[in-house]
Write a structure and sequence with these properties.
Elements lengths: L2 E3 H7 L13 E3 L1 E2 L10 E2 L12 H6 L4 E5 L11 E4 L2 H15 L3 E6 L4 H12 L5 E3 L9 H7 L7 E5 L7 H9 L3 E4 L7 H4 L2 H8 L11 E5 L10 H6 L2 E5 L10 E6 L4 E5 L7 E3 L4 H16 L4 H9 L9 E4 L5 E5 L5 H13 L6 E6 L8 H10 L8 E5 L4 H7 L8 E4 L2 H11 L5 E5 L7 H7 L1
Parallel strand pairs: 3-4, 4-5, 5-6, 7-9, 7-10, 8-9, 10-11, 11-12, 17-21, 18-19, 18-21, 19-20
Antiparallel strand pairs: 1-2, 13-14, 14-15, 16-17
């Protein structure tokens, strides 16, 4: 993590007001949460729903040795060093950006409508076979999370894998400018956040902002099946970027699968490179093969042999709530994919789930897909049309939008096989009466639906 003198910190954040007697005070690490401050931290009081300045005293009690402070904000502390700044969030981002410049690491930046976290986990697992790696924890991919992740990087690390999330134009550009990646990945373009951005084309343009911070002669890896990502423009030529593509189509991609086999708990696949072995992953979902292709491309760029890349993929452990297979009570199997949902990710999850065999009943629990704009009802209806009554035994939906999934599916299912709820407790009550030993349940919905509550009851 960052370990610098306060005089250097002040310079990195364009701050002022540090007393000369405190210039050589060292800080180790940064926190924006007074509850998690560690000894030696610099505390940065962010103003969000609450004013972080109100928690500086608690941060000091928990070990903070210095703080930033918004100019003109009243009552700065007098018992620890203070650096005054114009905007504490901008200061956090500037500190991370300047720290990144001082690090001799390679940074891999990852964005996309779906698959960011899974691809991050795969890239990290591959890179760890050969290098010392630091990666984004959980889902800390925002204007706060990414700079905090950068500031946690050790000067002994070789590789940093950063996930970049967004909901508006300009956000990926800002994160990319902080991260200054050597390699950038766009996993795919979907319709998540279309309510904010207006069109899939604008979503693609927002994701392409990752090129802004990509270093000269860096590598841009993207989904070659997506026409919206094939806009090779001046940003590519000016930076002399190397481009690599992955996807399903053999005619338009540098990396594509030649064979995919899926079992109940793992997958095997081959790709179009002569030096590649058979890849095995202890996860399911055809869509994860394409995430793996992006990760394999990174491994090749880092000079890792294909056999070593295969070993890294086989050992990958996905972040929780991403097609996470867990055992519940009395032999029940649960696939927890409740972190988030979009039309693409729900379709892929259902496709995977429908192909699973060896279970007594297969039960779908789906929640609303949020932030889909004016076509949100249509997107939910389309999901309902994709659920096969020959491959799914029961469907439970939760939310005002997902009732349209149920209404469409009900056209094809027998009575008492489809249930729609706007009360989560009522859903859980019926679900727990329905599930039996040797059943399997897939749980998926947008973050705001908090369907992990259903998973926790089934455990």
């Amino acid at each position: 993590m960052i370990h610098r003198r306060l005089i250097d910190i002040q310079d990195m954040v364009s701050g002022s007001g540090l007393l000369s007697s405190n210039e050589n005070q060292l800080i180790e690490g940064v926190s924006i949460d007074s509850r998690t401050v560690k000894q030696g931290n610099l505390f940065i009081p962010i103003i969000r729903l609450k004013d972080g300045h109100l928690y500086v005293r608690e941060a000091i009690k928990n070990g903070a040795v210095a703080t930033l402070w918004l100019k003109n904000h009243p009552n700065p502390p007098t018992d620890i060093p203070v650096i005054f700044v114009d905007d504490t969030l901008v200061a956090l981002q500037s500190l991370a950006k300047n720290y990144r410049k001082q690090l001799s690491v390679k940074v891999i930046g990852i964005t996309g409508s779906n698959g960011k976290t899974t691809t991050k986990d795969m890239v990290s697992s591959i890179a760890k076979t050969t290098f010392t790696v630091h990666k984004t924890k959980g889902n800390l991919n925002s204007e706060y999370g990414l700079p905090l992740t950068v500031l946690e990087v050790s000067e002994k690390d070789d590789i940093v894998v950063l996930e970049m999330g967004m909901s508006q134009r300009g956000e990926i550009e800002m994160l990319s400018t902080i991260a200054q990646p050597n390699i950038a990945i766009i996993t795919m373009i979907g319709v998540s956040h279309i309510a904010n951005l207006g069109s899939k084309e604008e979503i693609a343009n927002a994701k392409l902002e990752i090129i802004t911070g990509l270093q000269e002669k860096g590598t841009f890896i993207y989904n070659g099946d997506e026409p919206l990502l094939q806009k090779i423009n001046d940003r590519f030529h000016k930076k002399q970027l190397r481009t690599l593509t992955f996807g399903e189509q053999s005619s338009s991609n540098d990396f594509y699968p030649t064979k995919i086999e899926m079992n109940s708990g793992f997958m095997q696949f081959c790709i179009n490179h002569n030096d590649s072995p058979v890849f095995t992953m202890n996860i399911i979902g055809k869509h994860n093969v394409y995430n793996a292709l992006a990760a394999i491309a990174v491994g090749k760029e880092l000079g890792i042999p294909m056999k070593t890349i295969a070993n890294g993929l086989q050992k990958v452990k996905l972040t929780d709530m991403r097609m996470q297979k867990i055992m519940g009570a009395n032999g029940l199997t649960i696939i927890n994919d409740a972190w988030n949902a979009s039309p693409h990710s729900v379709r892929m999850a259902i496709e995977t789930f429908q192909e699973l065999v060896g279970y007594r009943n297969k039960i779908l629990v789906l929640g609303d897909m949020l932030e889909l704009g004016e076509k949100e009802v249509d997107y939910h209806k389309e999901i309902g049309q994709r659920i096969s009554p020959n491959k799914i035994d029961y469907l439970f939906t939760y939310g005002n939008l997902s009732k349209h999934i149920a209404m469409e599916a009900q056209k094809y299912f027998e009575r008492n096989r489809v249930f729609s709820y706007t009360n989560k407790n009522a859903l859980i009550e019926n679900l727990t009466r329905t599930v039996e030993s040797q059943d399997i349940v897939l749980v998926k919905g947008s973050r705001g639906m908090r369907l992990e509550d259903v998973v926790n009851i089934l455990l």
